[in-house]
Amino acid sequence: MARWTAAALAGLLLLGCDPQRIDALEEGVATEADVRKQFGEPEKIWDAPGGGRTLEYNRQPAGHRNYMITIGPDGKMSALRQVLTPENFAKVQPGMMMEDVRKMLGKPMKITPYDLQREVVYDWRYLQPPNTSMVFSVVFNTDYRVLRTGSMLDPQAPENKVQ
């Protein structure tokens, strides 16, 4: 419980800083060095189409956002996206590979293997507008292909706990 509380506190601190960090970056002007100055080291770096790179900035497990920041081949930031959205979740389809989902949504808050069912579940915490804490889950088979997806109220969120 103490570990989760510490992670939640860290997530809240990051949440407060993210709008300021984002405001300091302008598409087409900011460089990768500018992005790293504002956000630090990325969780992962993905190859982007056309020779660019996408820097992943994860706010899981306590936060509700993951950011993908694309640096074009010219070294300038071409996109900054918060990717944990219902629109992106709708793009996750049966048969997709885990790596493609991971590139789309970033690192999940939790990975749970279910050996008897021969499945693995990845969970991402997100905010359903206007401000409801939710969990989006993707179930993969043993070949790491999507079987199904779903969303539910976040059972860890204080506002969702049954009294």
UniProtKB/TrEMBL annotation:
<dbReference type="InterPro" id="IPR037873">
    <property type="entry name" value="BamE-like"/>
</dbReference>
<dbReference type="Pfam" id="PF04355">
    <property type="entry name" value="BamE"/>
</dbReference>
<keyword id="KW-0472">Membrane</keyword>
<feature type="domain" description="Outer membrane protein assembly factor BamE">
    <location>
        <begin position="83"/>
        <end position="146"/>
    </location>
</feature>
<dbReference type="InterPro" id="IPR007450">
    <property type="entry name" value="BamE_dom"/>
</dbReference>
<keyword id="KW-0732">Signal</keyword>
<protein>
    <recommendedName>
        <fullName>Outer membrane protein assembly factor BamE domain-containing protein</fullName>
    </recommendedName>
</protein>
